Structure formats: structure tokens, C-alpha cells
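Hi everyone,

Forwarding the result from last night's run.
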Amino acid sequence: MKKLVSLTLVLMLVLSCLALPALAEDRYLGVMLGTNVMSLDTNLATDGDSFEVIADCIDGLMQMDADGAAIPALAESYDLSDDATVYTFHLRDAKWNNGTPVTANDFVFAWRRIAQEAGEYAYMLDEIGNIKGAAEIISKQTDDLTTLGVTAADDKTLVVTLNVPVSFFPSLMYFPTFYPINEEFYNSLDDGTYGTSPTTFLSNGAFVLEDYTPGTATLAVKKNPDYWDADRVTLDGIRYQVVGSSDNALTAFKTGALDVVMVSGNQVDAARKDPALAENLKVTGAGYMWYLSFSQTEKNAQGGKLANANLRLAISNVIDRANLVDNYVMDGSLDTYTAVPPQFAASATTGEDFSADQAKFADYVGFNPDKAQEYFEAAKSELGVDSFEFTMIYGNNEGDEVAKVAQAIKEDVEAELPGVVINLQPMTKAERLDKMQNDNYDIALTRWGPDYADPMTYLGMWITNNSNNYGFWSNAEYDQLIADCVTGAYINDYDARWEAMYKAEELVMKEAVIAPLYTKANANLITAGVEGIDFHPVALNRVYKTTTVK
């Protein structure tokens, strides 16, 4: 019966993909998505798959080149004031797919809307971008949207004013939060319908939305003939298919139903050993880090037992991360022992990877059962109890390996820390996020991807009351260090800022605010002849503007 069900699922997947046109006919690319795309609204989308589709269809001021550097997109050029706080972007001639010109007001409208609605990524405007007036609007101190530091000097000139210099500001501009929306089109729609169908979504980018219903397993985009850089785009379109299992992904690739898939675990090993597949295997850095988040409030975890740093340190130090990546994830992911993952943020003055030294916090994080016992004994003494029972939540639609990793962590903890029981609770990613955002969990197996190439994309999460600080940890010294890096003492001293971020990271590790696990890689299988997909560990993992098919 199990075999029959498995074969039925595979058959259903293949049949659902048969509608994909063959590459030889019209050069639509069949691409796997790992999760359902729930929204194409830049104020509501929260995951990399949704951002990828949005970026297929909309250009921002800047875009990424093959190496991840910020280069002009809708902004043909920009000027920077002498004090590095005023950017003046000069827009090129471009238009939306309804024929309306793209103007500076499209950015003003979109950014004001993000600030006013204070969505999950609104923090990019104030905490990261430091745009003047953003913090006051987001925190509801004012409802005057004209105080936001973004204005249209004319249709082709956008002026952005910052509170302080932000050296990586141009690179923020290729993140979907900063994309434009046409105000007249948006206001013509019924409330809540923007970005829910091809008729309620405008494109100005390389592709136009062709087929989409929120949450369904398939969607499609087609080439935009009116794109300002259309000569560079050779694909006729992309048809996406959500595939929840690595087994099914491999089957879809072998049958030709999909041209780009991601596999993990045993399927990676199988692909490496199969000469017919090995030449199609490409391992790329996905950028995001998997980690454990601990609720530290009295509402959860047996009345807040996980607020005890020694207990968190004990749990962190019994996890065999090398075993996780070698025997469960198996796709080239890196076992990780820092709060900022490796291979995405390099110093502008030395070129050194911020997290190249994975042993720098060995006193606080690693696979060290003896040290874990010391932390555990201290925790039991401080808390006055010697047994604990926690529930760990994880997504059951975030890849086959996630459930295996959760089980391995449970086994590590219960084997090395007698008296600790970890109950596993699988759920959809959306449910996991909802529980974390509403402080309704004990431990979560979760992940975070870098939105821009600076350590602050991780370190900014753990300041007091940050919307992504799901453990509700608070440390005044940490908050001050981050403030000095973002708006204060170190803002104009790059090397001093780098050192201050190291100090901040050490505090996170010393108190086990999180337990880092591994930095994800993607093991991609790509049909022979498909070239020029740009893979990035930051912001947008896959870009197809220069993709060709031979």
C-alpha cells in the first residue's frame, strides 16, 4: 500500500507537469518551488520563493549582477550628497505592462504604503535603510506620510533622505520591499486583491505574470516584450511547480517534467553516483541559516524555563551539527557555529569573510557533551528542577531533511541531557511562523536568509522588541552596540563597526540566544543546455534575466 501511494503521488506530480511546454518548442523553463507562493504583494510576501517570482516581474532601482553587486535597473544612475545621506536616483524610460510609464511617484507610493502598513519587512526602511521619518510612521508616532524621506522631484527623479550614511544602501534597492507600485492601478482594485492574480498585478520587469492563484502548486510568468532590457531576456517564460519532496523532485527531473529542481539527502548522493545526473548537478550557496529559536517568556517553555541561558547553552552544545549536514541534509550545507553564517558578508577593507573563523565561539557553541553537562547542572541548580519537557515546532513543507534534522536534534538532546524531553510538532511553514510571531511555542527549528550583504541582516534581529526577535531576548549592552553600528559612534568608521559587530555576535553566542545549526546549500539539478541562471546567497537566490537554453 505504501508503494502504491508513493507511485500515485509521483504519477500525479508528473501528470501535473505535463502541461509544461518542451524547451525545444517555446523555451519555457520548468522550475521547482519548495513552498507555495501565498502573496505577490511586496508588503505581505515573506519567503524567498515569493520574492523570486516578484523579482521576475518587477524591477527596483537596482539589480544584481552575476557576482551579486548592485548595478542599475530602473535607476539609470544616482548621485550621492557630500554627507552621504541624500540619494538622487535618475530613472530610465520604462513602463508597466499596462502601458503606463514608471515614475518616481511609484516608489514614493510603494514605500509610504510599506511604512504605513508596517508589514514584516517594514524594518528594512527604518532599522536597516535608516530612511528619514520611517521609524515615526511605522511606530504610529505620526500618520503624516509626507514626512517619509522619499520624494519625487519630477517623474524621473527620486530623492531619498537618510538619517545617517548607510554604506550598503544601493544594494538594498534590489530587495522587493523597495520595489515600486503604480498608485492609480493599486487604487483601482478591491481592497486586499493586489497581487492575487494576473489581472491584479502589474509588471515592469523581465516577465509578466501569466497564471497565478495564491497558494496553488503551479504558477507561470511569460516574457515581457515591453521590458526596458528585453533584448537581454531569451526565455519565453517560466512555469513553476511546487514540489514538497526531494524524491518527487528527482523523479520530475528524470522524466523531463521539470528543468530546475533542488534535491537533498539521499537524492543528492544518488545524483552524484549516477553519471547521467552528476553532470547536471550544481551546488550553490543558499545563504540562509537554520537555527533553533528559544522562547524566553513565561508564557511558554514550562513558565519560561528557557529564559535560563545555561539551559539553552546545554542544549546547543549537545547538537552534533556535522552529523546533521553529513547524514541528514547531505547537500553541501555547512555546519555552523556563529550567529552570522559564513560565505555571504566580506569586509570591504580586508576582504575577509565575517564568519570565516567558525571556532571563535567554541567556548559557547559546538558539539561538546562534557561542557553541556556543566551548563546543564548549573541550569538545574538555578531553576531548582531537574526535568524539563519542551515542544519543538518545525515546518513539514520546508524540505524532506527538516523532519530528519528535528528528529536528530531530539535524539541528541535526550541522549546527552537526561531529564530533558523534546516533543516534535510538525506543521506548515505558515503555521510555524504564526506561532513564532504570536509567542506560542517553546523551541522552533527555523531559518533566516540574508536580505543584504552585511552582518547586520542577522544581528539586527536580536535587538530588544525587534519584530524578528522571536525569543524576546533583551540585552542593553547588545542594543547599544547595534545602535552604534547603525546610527552612532561607528557609522563612519568601517573597521570599528566591524569589530563592534563581532562583540555583539559574541553576546548572542554567550547567552545562546539562538543555537545555529547549518548554513544551507542548494543541490540543483539543471537540464543540459540551460545556462546563465544567476544564483545568489543574498536577497534573491535565483535570477533568470540572462538565462539561455541551447
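Residues 11-23+31-240+527-549 form a domain with the Dipeptide-binding Protein; domain 1 fold (CATH 3.90.76.10).

Cheers,
N.
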